[in-house]
Amino acid sequence: MQSFSALFVFCFIFISNANQVNAQQGLEFGLAGGGSYYMGDINLAKHFYQTKLNLGGFAKYHINGRYNIKIGAFFTNLRAADEDFNNQFQIMRDHSFETSLIELSAQFEVNFLPYEIGDVRRYSYTPYIQTGVALYLANSAQDVLNFAIPIGFGFKKNIKPQIVLGVEWAFRRTFSDYLDSLSGEDLDNYDPDYGTSVTDANRHKQSGFRYNKDWYSIALVSLSYTFKIGGLGCPAYYEY
């Protein structure tokens, strides 16, 4: 995850310094759906583990052909269980969790290629990267309400002058280690608000990894409607 974050920051700085396209501003509204999964003290490294359906929607403000601001929301479920892993420590711990999750996010997108709303020819597609801030509500987690940092990439294509098809894979690095209700190597490190009674039997029993924050990830397909502020311009230009 750390290597992925470093690569993302490098690409973000590189693309931000690229030449911009003097395109009109525009708006975009869409729906998205796909799969979500959790990574944390139970699932340390397995992508697309226990993938659950997610559904959501978004709105984008196109600043120009390089930069977009995106507001989004989606709903999903997350689940994990120690019994799914052939690991002696997890077999002994035998912990599991399941929670629904609702997320609201505000993100900044940077296109790798010049992108033009309404164009189905030269500037009709681009890969992109994104980051921002997200607020999530996980009803069964120990921290019900918390923040996350979205880090992701995707690809979009104008399949019609105002219809865009997109795919996206993004990670959420949370500010909590309690999404799975597991944290810490030693219960003596925590005050009574941790929610676990400290006894002689469990005082030094490792339950999780204290310094590893939890993550969740989404992979989705989106379909959206776009229009330029001020109109598309000459209709003949956008014909196939």
Question: Can you describe this structure?
Answer:
The chain is mainly beta and 240 residues long. It has one domain (2-180, 213-238): Porin. Helix content is 9%, strand content 47%. The chain contains two helices and eight strands; from the N terminus they run H-E-E-E-H-E-E-E-E-E. It has helices at residues 2-16, 88-93; strands spanning 26-39, 52-62, 67-81, 96-111, 125-138, 145-160, 163-174, 215-228. Strand 5 (125-138) and strand 6 form a beta hairpin. The longest helix has 15 residues, at 2-16. The protein is elongated. The model is unreliable at 14-22 (pLDDT under 50).
What can be said about this structure in brief?
The chain is mostly beta strands and 240 residues long.
